[in-house]
Amino acid sequence: MFKVEREGAVAVIRIDSPPVNALSFERWRSLPPLVRELEADASVAALVFTGLPHKHFCGGNDFKEFAALDAQGTSQGTAAVREGMRAVYQSALPAVAALHGAAMGSGFMLASACDMRIATPDARMALPEVKVGAFGGYSLISQLMSPGQARWMTYTGRPIDGTRAYQLGIVQELADTPDAVLAASIALAAEIGNLTRDRLDRRIKPVLNQLDRTALWDAYDIERLLAIDTMGKVN
């Protein structure tokens, strides 16, 4: 399934499915309970997803598995993918995607479900589903980029590299090598974990998720309530 290693308060989740780290529906189904297990561990402050030591971050779904499914199987399989990504997105634990090689289809969506992304300049991200008569991912990636860019990626299936993703704000940092990307991702996750302990422990991300889905001034009031609650406890 997924391999988990600890770097202090950071849980490093390795997508271990060579050669391209494609994810079967079984693997997707294993992700929500894994995230819940890590959330239940008070010593875990943040998550990092990586495809190392393999060549790619994640090649997306196993299309051979898709091709063998009937309508009911497809519905169940896509639901497993949805719940896997939702578990990462809705987790109170901040998540960083360490991108190298390819992040294709649901692999790109998994990275988009994380809070932040660090990549090599030559990492490739795409939604190639349209090229095989499928569709998916727009609702997630449109949270990271302009609607026009998200539609361009959805309509064309063309990839963008890490440098372009950084220019668009999809990726927050670049690092030269996959190992450097992972190291930077762990460092960022550790920094976030250290800053959000104590009063803000596991409280910022749920509020940020709510703010992203809320009108401006309603969102401001939600943010203000958290500020009041935490500042009121300063000794």
UniProtKB/TrEMBL annotation:
Keywords: Isomerase. It holds the Pfam family ECH_1. One of its GO terms (molecular function) is isomerase activity. InterPro entries: ClpP/crotonase-like_dom_sf, Enoyl-CoA_hydra/iso. One of its GO terms (biological process) is fatty acid beta-oxidation. CDD domains: crotonase-like. PANTHER family: ENOYL-COA HYDRATASE, MITOCHONDRIAL, ENOYL-COA HYDRATASE-RELATED. This is Enoyl-CoA hydratase/isomerase family protein.
